[in-house]
């Protein structure tokens, strides 16, 4: 049974909303369009695991653009307002601008964004913008060629990502930059990166997370956001930064500004988890719905879709999953162990 609760005003959200078991509304949908990537970041898709013999998904397994559009419409009917395309590397999916055009035609969608490593933006940014994309989040972990080359696993030079950022800006897309911080790996170059990019983009530093099963995560490798802030400041204290009010409820990056108004975002996924405000559903490239980045299982939407389920049945299925949702992995980290989590390359960041 689908039930809508009307706690909108109380919780600071607009309109009627579908709530999960912890009172969180369904607002965002992250759609992974491929499990393939053209980088092998050591913390995400290490080359030792995702090597030449790795069996990536065959094309027939992937949701088609028609299927993604249909499911997106169902999610939007249930309250989703923001769509984000991710992967793997979403720009590897052929004809991606066509998907963006389909999704931007859905009434009720306020925002369409894309998370990318930026390498293919020089080729695609203008077409994506023309198709209705509003903004991109580009991942860039270091400006030091040696550090970045090692982290991306393929010795790709950071200038290629900077070229992608430039192409996005030129096309009129808004740009944010995501930097995953790992102690002893790229933490020495954070200020340099922020100084170089802060005039063009909001840089967001992300605490290294224990996603997937292969990134060798341990707590010692996490640089807490308060330490990141200290490293960004000229005198090493972080004292010149002041917190900025969030733009909207559930904003994951805590924004700070220095005295000159330069902004930085801190995503404290480990030291200050934000499960309590998490309004995201995640759709894998093969159409499995996950209700948490750290989930070990999901709900197959592709099978009913391909078996001919009508729109009402799809909405009913999704609503039931959301209403049963009680995930809060990041808040429980340390108390629970998950045997096998879904890979980041399957559901995206
Ligand atoms: N290929 C695209 C990209 O590079 O942005 C999209 C997919 S990638 C999985 C999405 C985001 O997840 C990237 O910003 C990446 O840095 C981040 N990410 C991957 N593994 C992570 C981890 N272990 N901890 C924190 N962030 C991670």
UniProtKB/TrEMBL annotation:
<feature type="binding site">
    <location>
        <position position="88"/>
    </location>
    <ligand>
        <name>S-adenosyl-L-methionine</name>
    </ligand>
</feature>
<comment type="similarity">
    <text>Belongs to the radical SAM superfamily. MoaA family.</text>
</comment>
<dbReference type="InterPro" id="IPR006638">
    <property type="entry name" value="Elp3/MiaA/NifB-like_rSAM"/>
</dbReference>
<feature type="binding site">
    <location>
        <position position="37"/>
    </location>
    <ligand>
        <name>[4Fe-4S] cluster 1</name>
    </ligand>
</feature>
<feature type="binding site">
    <location>
        <position position="84"/>
    </location>
    <ligand>
        <name>GTP</name>
    </ligand>
</feature>
<comment type="pathway">
    <text>Cofactor biosynthesis; molybdopterin biosynthesis.</text>
</comment>
<protein>
    <recommendedName>
        <fullName>GTP 3',8-cyclase</fullName>
        <ecNumber>4.1.99.22</ecNumber>
    </recommendedName>
</protein>
<dbReference type="Pfam" id="PF04055">
    <property type="entry name" value="Radical_SAM"/>
</dbReference>
<feature type="binding site">
    <location>
        <position position="30"/>
    </location>
    <ligand>
        <name>GTP</name>
    </ligand>
</feature>
<feature type="binding site">
    <location>
        <position position="139"/>
    </location>
    <ligand>
        <name>S-adenosyl-L-methionine</name>
    </ligand>
</feature>
<dbReference type="InterPro" id="IPR040064">
    <property type="entry name" value="MoaA-like"/>
</dbReference>
<feature type="binding site">
    <location>
        <position position="292"/>
    </location>
    <ligand>
        <name>[4Fe-4S] cluster 2</name>
    </ligand>
</feature>
<keyword id="KW-0004">4Fe-4S</keyword>
<dbReference type="InterPro" id="IPR013483">
    <property type="entry name" value="MoaA"/>
</dbReference>
<keyword id="KW-0547">Nucleotide-binding</keyword>
<feature type="binding site">
    <location>
        <position position="41"/>
    </location>
    <ligand>
        <name>[4Fe-4S] cluster 1</name>
    </ligand>
</feature>
<keyword id="KW-0501">Molybdenum cofactor biosynthesis</keyword>
<feature type="binding site">
    <location>
        <begin position="280"/>
        <end position="282"/>
    </location>
    <ligand>
        <name>GTP</name>
    </ligand>
</feature>
<feature type="binding site">
    <location>
        <position position="278"/>
    </location>
    <ligand>
        <name>[4Fe-4S] cluster 2</name>
    </ligand>
</feature>
<feature type="binding site">
    <location>
        <position position="209"/>
    </location>
    <ligand>
        <name>S-adenosyl-L-methionine</name>
    </ligand>
</feature>
<keyword id="KW-0949">S-adenosyl-L-methionine</keyword>
<keyword id="KW-0456">Lyase</keyword>
<dbReference type="InterPro" id="IPR007197">
    <property type="entry name" value="rSAM"/>
</dbReference>
<feature type="binding site">
    <location>
        <position position="176"/>
    </location>
    <ligand>
        <name>GTP</name>
    </ligand>
</feature>
<feature type="domain" description="Radical SAM core">
    <location>
        <begin position="21"/>
        <end position="240"/>
    </location>
</feature>
<dbReference type="InterPro" id="IPR013785">
    <property type="entry name" value="Aldolase_TIM"/>
</dbReference>
<dbReference type="InterPro" id="IPR010505">
    <property type="entry name" value="MoaA_twitch"/>
</dbReference>
<dbReference type="Pfam" id="PF06463">
    <property type="entry name" value="Mob_synth_C"/>
</dbReference>
<feature type="binding site">
    <location>
        <position position="43"/>
    </location>
    <ligand>
        <name>S-adenosyl-L-methionine</name>
    </ligand>
</feature>
<dbReference type="InterPro" id="IPR058240">
    <property type="entry name" value="rSAM_sf"/>
</dbReference>
<keyword id="KW-0479">Metal-binding</keyword>
<comment type="function">
    <text>Catalyzes the cyclization of GTP to (8S)-3',8-cyclo-7,8-dihydroguanosine 5'-triphosphate.</text>
</comment>
<feature type="binding site">
    <location>
        <position position="44"/>
    </location>
    <ligand>
        <name>[4Fe-4S] cluster 1</name>
    </ligand>
</feature>
<feature type="binding site">
    <location>
        <position position="275"/>
    </location>
    <ligand>
        <name>[4Fe-4S] cluster 2</name>
    </ligand>
</feature>
<comment type="subunit">
    <text>Monomer and homodimer.</text>
</comment>
<feature type="binding site">
    <location>
        <position position="115"/>
    </location>
    <ligand>
        <name>GTP</name>
    </ligand>
</feature>
<keyword id="KW-0408">Iron</keyword>
<keyword id="KW-0411">Iron-sulfur</keyword>
<keyword id="KW-0342">GTP-binding</keyword>
<dbReference type="InterPro" id="IPR050105">
    <property type="entry name" value="MoCo_biosynth_MoaA/MoaC"/>
</dbReference>
<dbReference type="InterPro" id="IPR000385">
    <property type="entry name" value="MoaA_NifB_PqqE_Fe-S-bd_CS"/>
</dbReference>
């Amino acid at each position: 049974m689908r039930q809508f609760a009307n706690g909108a005003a109380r919780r600071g959200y607009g309109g009627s909303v579908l709530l999960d078991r912890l009172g969180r509304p369904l607002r965002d949908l992250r759609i992974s369009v491929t499990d393939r990537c053209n980088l092998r970041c050591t913390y995400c898709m290490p080359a030792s695991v995702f090597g030449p013999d790795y069996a990536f998904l065959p094309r027939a397994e992937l949701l088609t653009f028609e299927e993604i559009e249909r499911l997106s419409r169902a999610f939007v009917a249930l309250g989703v307002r923001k769509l984000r395309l991710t992967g793997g590397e979403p720009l590897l999916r052929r004809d991606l601008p066509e998907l963006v055009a389909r999704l931007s035609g859905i009434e009720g969608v306020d925002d369409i964004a894309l998370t990318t490593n930026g390498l293919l933006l020089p080729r695609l940014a203008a077409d994506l913008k023309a198709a209705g994309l509003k903004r991109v989040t580009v991942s860039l972990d270091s400006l030091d060629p040696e550090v970045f080359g090692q982290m991306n696993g393929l010795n790709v030079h950071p200038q290629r990502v900077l070229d992608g950022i430039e192409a996005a800006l030129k096309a009129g897309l808004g740009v944010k930059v995501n930097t995953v911080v790992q102690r002893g790996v790229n933490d020495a170059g954070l200020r340099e990166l922020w100084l170089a990019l802060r005039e063009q983009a909001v840089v967001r530093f992300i605490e290294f997370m224990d996603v997937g099963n292969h990134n060798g995560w341990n707590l010692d490798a996490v640089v807490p956001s308060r330490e990141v802030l200290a490293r960004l400041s000229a005198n090493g204290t972080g004292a010149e930064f002041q917190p900025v009010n969030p733009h909207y409820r559930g904003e994951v990056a805590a924004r700070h500004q220095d005295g000159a108004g330069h902004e930085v975002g801190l995503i404290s996924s480990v030291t200050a988890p934000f499960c309590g405000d998490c309004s995201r559903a995640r759709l894998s490239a093969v159409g499995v719905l996950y209700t948490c980045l750290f989930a070990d299982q999901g709900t197959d939407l592709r099978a009913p879709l391909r078996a001919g389920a009508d729109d009402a049945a799809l909405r009913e299925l999704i609503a039931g999953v959301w209403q049963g949702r009680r995930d809060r992995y990041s808040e429980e980290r340390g108390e629970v162990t998950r045997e096998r989590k879904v890979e980041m390359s399957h559901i995206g960041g």
